[in-house]
Design brief:
By secondary structure, the chain is of the alpha/beta class. The protein is built from 11 helices and 8 strands. It has an 8-stranded parallel barrel with strand order 1-2-3-4-5-6-7-8, surrounded by 7 helices. The longest helix has 17 residues, at 247-263. The structure holds 3-methyl-2-oxobutanoic acid. 3-methyl-2-oxobutanoic acid (KIV) binds next to strand 6.
Length: 280
């Protein structure tokens, strides 16, 4: 059931949702057409993810995505959005070089992209940057666990938190990362690619909402990449994702019908043609 009339979701609503055990539903969007549908359907948070490097641009990973590209897509989503909270990803190396650069780039996502918050990957190592962004009233969503910008350190897209220890990606380190983000002022934390028990422990300890992807049902909310939800890629969906549609086949079928009708000259029909105006 579509519902375009719910109240605007604000940063402050997410902690209320955690307290009330109301699951938070987040979904990526990269353009106006899909963002309008998702917003109207009642998605709570729209994320302009740097996953756009892969699902929109066709790259192997997210590393080449630029701040300008996130702004370009965020603007389109911002035009469609009425109710959802709009979060934009800070791409690789847009926040790691210096706090000043992070401030300027995050500010651009709000000023030029229309985002209401930014998302950064990392925990302890970026806590000082998160604190500074929050000090100047740029709301920050954290993102720990399988962080796609760390693909080379992780040796591929690998589930994190399976091993014990305080090295990056280890169990206790992820607990420390979440605590560091919360105390730096992050308003929510994405938990990606980790065992459900660890995600549950982080969620229980965190005073801010957690949003899971490949982290089980024990988080305060869930996020999916829209292409996975809609079955748009034509490839097998990853284990953690659930395709609710097979748009690859639906769209492919529509295009095949169009091709057939063009080739047999049954499209356009008389009902698709303009008639000369009648003289009165
Ligand atoms: O870039 C992205 O789409 C993301 C989500 C998968 C959380 O970071």
């Amino acid at each position: 059931m579509l519902n375009g009339e719910k109240d605007k979701v604000r940063i402050t609503d997410l902690s209320r949702m955690k307290a009330a055990h109301t699951p938070i539903a987040m979904l990526t969007a990269y353009d106006c057409a899909f963002a309008r549908i998702f917003d109207y359907a009642g998605v709570d948070v729209l994320l302009v993810g740097d996953s756009l490097g892969m699902v929109v641009q066709g790259a192997q990973n997210t590393l080449a995505v630029t701040v300008d590209e996130i702004i370009y897509h965020s603007r389109m989503v911002a035009r469609a959005r009425r109710r959802a909270l709009l979060v934009a990803d800070m791409p690789f190396l847009s926040y790691q070089v210096s706090v000043e650069q992070a401030l300027l780039n995050a500010g651009r996502l709000l000023k030029e992209g229309g985002a209401e918050a930014v998302k950064l990957e990392g925990g302890l190592s970026i806590a000082a940057t998160v604190r500074r962004l929050v000090e100047v009233d740029i709301p920050v969503m954290g993102h720990i666990g399988l962080t796609p910008q760390s693909i080379h350190r992780m040796g591929g897209y690998r589930v994190q938190g399976r091993r014990s220890g305080r090295a990056p990606g280890c169990r206790e380190r992820l607990l420390d990362d979440a605590a560091a983000l919360e105390s730096a002022g992050a308003f929510a934390i994405v938990l990606e690619g980790m065992p459900p028990e660890l995600a549950e422990e982080i969620t229980a300890k965190a005073g801010v909402p957690t949003i899971g992807i490949g982290a089980g049902a024990g988080c305060d909310g869930q996020v999916l990449v829209m292409h996975d939800l809609l079955g748009l890629s034509g490839c097998p969906t990853p284990r953690f994702a659930k395709p609710y549609l097979n748009l690859w086949e639906e769209v492919g079928g529509a295009v095949l019908s169009y091709l057939r009708e063009v080739r047999e000259r049954s499209f356009p029909g008389p009902e698709h043609c303009y008639r000369p105006r009648q003289r009165s």
